[in-house]
């Protein structure tokens, strides 16, 4: 075997600590390169991205726009020479993270998959096919929620005043919502992955529904910058639906697993069910007896001399 050939991989995915660290480094580097590549592309089109993100802001250039925002207009102005460069980097980097979702989700799964069984790796395509659309769905919901968030926040300004809105402040809120909403939509997929990996059962997930609904509501209240209940429900309602959809998938998977292996859900210290049904006994074969016993085998010569000495 040549020196350049790699050693065969363990079919069970066992590796030394140094190999795990090297694998993690390679996955992180590949994800970072993909994010950097998409960030560079987004930086080239940063003006289009900035205009797209600033659409929800109240321009109030016409009487119709003033009436739409209830007379609350904001003056958009930048402060400082380096602020525009920081905005470009921030917007481009966030766009790069969002655009590289399929890449870093695949690298994350590829790092975890070697530790799973062979039948568990078959679901990688399904997880990858669902992970990217869920993240992008959260991004879309965040963008659709931005106009309501802006209206609610500007409505708190005193009458007769014109709010001065720095773009960096607005982009901080908008980009945080985009990332938080995208990651929040991945939570049901994480529950399905834990169920398919045998960590948690669908019945247990269903038993957690009260705590999950409360936790999702509290998370939505903190994740949305505005304090209105509409914004909170816009984030919480899809995650509620996705959570119960994940519970349904987990229950179906448990039922399928129970049909293949009835003892799959038993604990290590729990006895399995015994099959006490009587089974028919096969008929024993008859053995014919010999007419005369076989003569004893002759003893060796040394054994005969020893017996003569004893007698």
Automatic annotation (TrEMBL):
Database matches in InterPro entries: TatC (IPR002033)
Membrane topology summary: Multi-pass membrane protein
Keywords, comma-separated and alphabetical: Cell membrane, Membrane, Protein transport, Translocation, Transmembrane, Transmembrane helix, Transport
Keyword rRNA processing: no
A Pfam family per the record: TatC
Subcellular location: Cell membrane; Membrane
Residues annotated as transmembrane: 28-46, 87-111, 123-146, 173-194, 206-224, 230-252
Region (Disordered) location: 286-311
Principal location: membrane
Function, as annotated: Part of the twin-arginine translocation (Tat) system that transports large folded proteins containing a characteristic twin-arginine motif in their signal peptide across membranes. Together with TatB, TatC is part of a receptor directly interacting with Tat signal peptides.
Record text on subunit structure and interactions: The Tat system comprises two distinct complexes: a TatABC complex, containing multiple copies of TatA, TatB and TatC subunits, and a separate TatA complex, containing only TatA subunits. Substrates initially bind to the TatABC complex, which probably triggers association of the separate TatA complex to form the active translocon.
PANTHER family: SEC-INDEPENDENT PROTEIN TRANSLOCASE PROTEIN TATC, SEC-INDEPENDENT PROTEIN TRANSLOCASE PROTEIN TATC, CHLOROPLASTIC-RELATED
Family: Belongs to the TatC family.
Protein name: Sec-independent protein translocase protein TatC
The species this protein was found in: Kitasatospora cystarginea
Gene it is expressed from: tatC
